[in-house]
């Protein structure tokens, strides 16, 4: 039901590699590793630095992350760890962008991330290291309900960060003529598209609606979205709707028809078709398996 990856592997031979697994969650705990090259992928990425600190290169700008911090950024921006200090460990968590946007976090927090900022929690919580160890143990069991619980707890930790004090490096004020600027050309349009879809996926929207809101020709909007997100606009909208439906199937006793309509599917038959194709089971079977674990 849920696809997780233990580690996102990067191609060391390429200075900028488009990675797979954009629709998978990921978790890894490891000693900090200096990278030879920048890379990018489609996730929202969290880095915890436990008893260690690190230097990063983010879209051509050098930043320093002090020991004992949590950072979050959109990994579509080219990034690279260039130095690490201390004997501690770091935890990387990878969140599919479609899932992240369905969490309805504060607008300012989202806008900063989608515009290329690295956000830093001003201090770790006393329970953060213990929580990441518990998440790791739960994920290793491979049980869907526990995985969903981990996702909920990660979401709540990010929500708390968004409501508490955090800092940024003001990377969007960086030299706009940087040689790496071309690597993220079009991300401003993507940010507008993603924001619009996140706010309207549970309504009847079309590619033309999305393009019109962005001020782009529909063909260009579709091409640009595919290039950056590695998924079509229609597929992306359906993923948001499916994630909404999954949550309702597990967290409520609503009828499947009501869930289909609330999540934005125009008909029960369309919901069944897309759900079956994505998860190889019916919505009822999904709900049953979640409660049987």
Automatic annotation (TrEMBL):
InterPro entries: Homeodomain-like_sf, HTH_AraC, HTH_AraC-typ_CS, RmlC-like_jellyroll, RmlC_Cupin_sf. Keywords: DNA-binding, Transcription, Transcription regulation. The keyword DNA-binding applies. Residues 191-289 form the HTH araC/xylS-type domain. The keyword DNA-binding applies. This is Transcriptional regulator MelR.
